[in-house]
Amino acid sequence: MATTTTTQPVTLSNEEVLRYSRHLIMPEVGMEGQLKLKAARVLCIGTGGLGSPLALYLAAAGVGTIGLVDFDVVDFTNLQRQIIHSTADVGRKKLDSAADKLQAINPHVELVRFETRLTSANALEIFRDFDIIVDGTDNFPTRYLVNDACVLTGKPNVYGSIFRFEGQVSIFGTKEGPCYRCLYPEPPPPGLVPSCAEGGVLGILPGLVGVMQATEAIKLILGSGDPLIGRLLLVDALAMKFRELKLRKNPDCPACGTHPTVTELIDYNQFCGIRGEEKPVESQVPAISVEELKQKLDAGDDIFVLDVREPHEYQICNLQGYLIPLGDLPKRVNELDSSREIVAHCRSGVRSAKAVDFLRQAGFTKVKNLSGGILAWADKVDPTMPKY
Amino acid sequence: MKVLIPTPLRQYADKKDAVEVSGATVSEALKNLTSTYPDLRKHLYTDDGKLRAFVNVYLNDEDIRYLQKEGTPVKSGDTLAIVPSIAGGKEELCKLINKNALFDS
């Protein structure tokens, strides 16, 4: 499966033999397998939740060349799951942070860094020098971009994705197997993706799924075992249940079917219905700043504070507002008195802007959005309040 | 038979991860499901009643598109799994939401 682009034959030094001894004494790997690993070139897209365990294990296993694509910077909230980054790395480029740890685990790995967002303009070029692509990204447009680029360049795509505590793993883009579009010909329109309130992710989940991706990549390189080609593995970490579904190559698939219509990379944001520069709702509804709200409350003004977050968020911190989660607002709107001055808030001002928009359309005239949400309150009014 | 509800859709099915339904075909089973949980309908079906392309339905471990689609006969003891596409990433989810997100009918 692996093709080497170097002209020199790959060998292992005595030091490497000792390092990989536990691989070498297994018939499933052996010297032959370890040399294949060393000759292999794997591209990891994303060094975040999925990319962290994936890259760490590929480096430990002795994959000779690992490409890393990431344009992002380590954020404090990443540390809950992106285990390649540490507290001291907050603020650093993820590529630098990842590279340090990978090189420390295995100095024999050659790292190739791409400090860029993967786009239709660069994907084919970036993929060219690698044998296997592992998709560790977190959005639909890139999923389709990676898929199409893999099909066009003939490289397998080791796919993994997660949502809260559920994950999916498979291998797409092999000649005989299906591609991502065979499974999902169309992305979900933005309006149907669950809201921020339903987001969050169990920290261990990308660990579980990322290591499965590393496993599949290694199996492809070795030519061992049964790779997840034509198989979709579903994992529910809370139930600790694994299910396997059959995936078929769709002969009518626009990317990999018998008469493909995808012959070049397209605008994937457009494909996924993301309108990019559209003005967010926040700037279209009447708003009030946290300082102004504080002033009014201190002055004893009759303000009805409406909190549209979820109950578990209320427990983290709150302004003692009246809690109606955004999703419940349409059916609980009768609990609100439209004659009162209402200030709606959420965590950062996005959900509450939608709430205000909805209420205004329902005839409420005295409703405003708290700009910046409870995060802004914690920033500017009450620093003792935790941020999340 | 059982219908397995994936995480992103559980909020529309009383937070259940599996629902018992009746029906002789996949279509009847899903109609049974969406009449019990009407909020699920718009997430599974387009306005003109077609199953959404980013939602796959499996009868046991086979994609119904390769069986008889929604006309596939089902029996008690079968499991229907709804498998939507997921991409993870809270930050990107926020960026994907447009102004009509929660109130599209």
Biggest beta-sheet profile of chain A:
8 strands, mixed
Strand content of chain A: 15-25%
The separation of the N and C termini of chain B measures 29 Å
Counted beta strands of chain A: 13
Helix content of chain B: 10-25%
Structural class of chain B: alpha+beta
The dominant shape of chain A is: elongated
- Terminus-to-terminus distance of chain A: 45 Å
**Mind telling me the CATH superfamily name of the largest domain in chain A?**
NAD(P)-binding Rossmann-like Domain
Number of domains of chain A: 2
Low-confidence stretches of chain B at least 5 residues in length (pLDDT < 50)?
Answer: 89-105
Rg over alpha carbons of chain B:
14 Å
Give the class of chain A from helix and strand content and strand pairing.
Answer: alpha/beta
Helices and strands of chain B, in order, run as: EHEHHEEEH
Task: Report the biggest beta sheet of chain B as strand number plus sense, adding barrel if it closes.
Answer: 5 strands, mixed
Query: What is the beta-strand fraction of chain B?
Result: 15-25%
Overall body shape of chain B: globular
Architecture of chain B in CATH? Roll
CATH topology of chain B: Ubiquitin-like (UB roll)
Q: What count of helical segments of chain A does DSSP give? A: 15
| Radius of gyration of chain A, taken over Cα atoms and rounded to an integer in Å | 25 Å
